[in-house]
């Protein structure tokens, strides 16, 4: 499928729930305050693009390429990232809400989640080595058979990671959030 190449464009306050985004290859583009809620972004290519204050809730990302993408201040509810094209998959999330999204069985090594709300996010069987979860709320997020080696949870909170079910070698935690590793053992922690 040959896609039109669109480079270095800035899209502002567009509502793609009414008129779908043209299927193309977007390179070095910026999307600001755009609404992609329930949009079909399948088979679209985004390379080195920035999304700022956009709504991606329930967007269809089947075979979508996300290569070196930065999401800042975005609402990304219920997005199934495992449906993306896994070739060159790389992204960063800053001040985003990712509730009910899924990274099931993906390789997201070295991804940064900075100051994100991530309730009930699915990380089952994900390879998430060297991932940073800085100041992230991981309430009821699911970690099962997840490789979290060398990942940084020192300022993350509300997580429940069972060390028997996940690989956490060389991962970083703080004294304040160690209870998130012990909750599965049903023990009481007192000050």
TrEMBL record:
- Quote the InterPro entries the UniProt record gives: 5peptide_repeat, PA_immunity-related
The source's superkingdom equals Bacteria
Report the PANTHER family cross-referenced here: ANTIBIOTIC RESISTANCE PROTEIN MCBG, PENTAPEPTIDE REPEAT-CONTAINING PROTEIN
Q: What is this protein called?
A: Pentapeptide repeat-containing protein
């Amino acid at each position: 499928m040959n896609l039109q190449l669109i480079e270095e464009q800035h899209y502002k306050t567009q509502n793609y729930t009414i008129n779908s985004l043209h299927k193309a290859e977007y390179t070095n583009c910026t999307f600001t305050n755009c609404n992609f809620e329930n949009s079909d972004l399948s088979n679209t290519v985004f390379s080195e693009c920035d999304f700022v204050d956009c709504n991606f809730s329930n967007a269809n990302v089947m075979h979508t390429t996300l290569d070196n993408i930065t999401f800042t201040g975005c609402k990304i509810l219920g997005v199934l990232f495992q449906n993306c094209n896994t070739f060159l998959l790389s992204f960063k999330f800053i001040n985003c809400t990712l509730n009910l999204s899924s990274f099931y069985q993906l390789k997201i090594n070295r991804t940064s989640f900075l100051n994100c709300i991530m309730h009930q996010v699915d990380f089952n069987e994900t390879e998430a080595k060297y991932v940073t979860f800085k100041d992230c709320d991981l309430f009821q997020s699911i970690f099962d058979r997840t490789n979290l080696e060398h990942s940084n949870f020192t300022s993350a909170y509300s997580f429940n990671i069972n060390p028997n079910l996940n690989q956490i070698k060389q991962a970083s935690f703080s004294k304040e959030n160690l209870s998130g590793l012990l909750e599965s053992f049903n023990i009481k922690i007192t000050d």
